[in-house]
Amino acid sequence: MVTMKKSILLALLATAVVGCTQADIDEARPSAEPEKMIYATIADQEMTRVELNNKKQTTWSTGDYIVRYGQDVHDVWEFAGITGDRSGSFKIYGAWSDLVDFDFKGKYYAFYPYDQYAGLGSFTNGDKAIFYNIPSTQNYHKNSYDPRSNVMHGIGSDASNFSFKNLMGYLRLSLTGDKRVESITLEGNNGEYLGGYRYLHIEDITINGWYSDVTTSLTLNCNGVQLTDIPTEFYFAIYPTTFSKGISIVVTFTDGTVFPRSTSKSIDIARNVIQPMATIDTGANIEWQTAIIKHQGTKVSTPWVYGYTSLSGYLYWGDDYMSDLNSTESYVYEDGLSEHTITIKAIGASAIEINDCTGITEIDLSNF
Known about the structure:
Layout: E1 17-21, E2 37-42, E3 51-52, E4 58-59, E5 65-70, E6 73-79, E7 87-95, E8 108-112, E9 117-123, E10 128-134, E11 137-139, E12 152-156, E13 161-166, E14 169-176, E15 180-188, E16 195-201, E17 208-215, E18 217-226, E19 232-238, E20 241-243, E21 247-253, E22 258-263, E23 267-269, E24 274-276, E25 280-281, E26 289-296, E27 299-301, E28 304-316, E29 322-324, E30 330-332, E31 339-353, E32 360-367
Parallel strand pairs: 2-13, 11-18, 14-24, 14-25
Antiparallel strand pairs: 1-9, 2-7, 3-4, 5-6, 5-8, 6-7, 8-12, 9-10, 10-16, 12-13, 14-19, 15-18, 15-21, 16-17, 20-23, 21-22, 26-31, 26-32, 27-30, 28-29, 28-31
């Protein structure tokens, strides 16, 4: 459960913004109207997650919380729909005890994620700004970016219906190899800001800037993601910027070794767009031994691989799943197909043993 946090009182911004103020937040309190809901739609259609679906579009997820603010409201709402929805309902989670003393001229706004919300302020011309944090640390999510690293802002047609737009762009790294990734650190070669507090005009998202506590690197915590000869994708959520002199990355593996790589080519990160990078082979000198096994049926006896002390590798079952070598005695298919092609990728192997050949129709050891 998300806990309502105390506000961050931001100092005066020396240029455009007069200041940011926000009342202290009470602990979450139950709604007096538990049946009341608000509704939020992700308006950007051309791309992209809070979860990425198979069309590379952003969707809502269980555990998402948004801040609603505007004329006489300042509260937090919890997603009540189904993970994968692009439009969904939200139920009240909690509220600030004191309203922000601003005239919103009868308008309403919203912000995601609640965790990174920092408060409200005013420009010198009286226009309103929202303040939020972009963390310098993100967490790996398979085939997607960290949903808590994504930032979206919503404008309400009334107090109950909001249309959100992504504020972030996305960089996708694709890595191959044979090690496990502990973390990846990204930096711009021209010292571009990547993390810290930002301000945003609540009606015109093109008016924005960095505010305080800025950092020039992002770290993606991966906690041992296994690399294989099939590219594994890693996503960074980045506020739109141009890396004018390219980027540098450092991949740190769980064995303590590191793999640095840099490019001087200018890279543009645009709002709501995934920028892919060419696949990087972190184990360029690896010579894989490959065995192909064709099988019919729903259950197969696991091929056992023997070898030297350096033996390592993976077994691809032919149904989009894989496992480490010698990690299970058998495998049961649940995809409804009757035929599969099993691929063994190994390093330092000397022999393959199959205890039960039931269902096996062909074995190809020509590249083993």
